[in-house]
Amino acid sequence: MGYEHYEPDTREEIGNQVLGFRVDTGVLANLTYWHQDQWELFNVYGVIKVNYLFAESLVIDGAPGATLLQLNFTSTVPAIGVQVISGVSLTLATLVVGGRVRWIGTGIASVPLLTGTACITPGDAVLSMIIGTEGGTGTIGMVTTVADATSGSHQWSIFYEPMSDGAYVTNVI
Q1: 3-class SS of residue 72
Q2: pTM of the model as a whole
């Protein structure tokens, strides 16, 4: 039996309880955001547990070359510089429309998984990650290196659970 007989708000609440709250960025041009630079994706207020973090390829990059990606966290309150939360990905050239770059959790050096199959991505992070500090603010971001993407677009999504009073996430871009 499916969920079609539930109201949309009820289905959304069930999803929040199972997966965590979801926040998406806008649709991002690869030429701009996979351009050998640091970009902040999400604001983090308080302490959260990251369950899922991924980018989905929406329009294929014509020539992504050897673009590599690494995810990180920067705390502004208290002031703590960039801290990596993943290893460096393999080249983004393997992404197809519907393919994803997925943070897999487990540890700081775990390499993001790239799916070369459209619309199919292995699921859960092996271990979620607790990010932020009580009363603090920071950002989850990415840095790309080696080569620029030349076309295409993608969108980031995060699913998280608040772990401190009033903790939440918003998109930056």
Answers
A1: strand
A2: 0.89
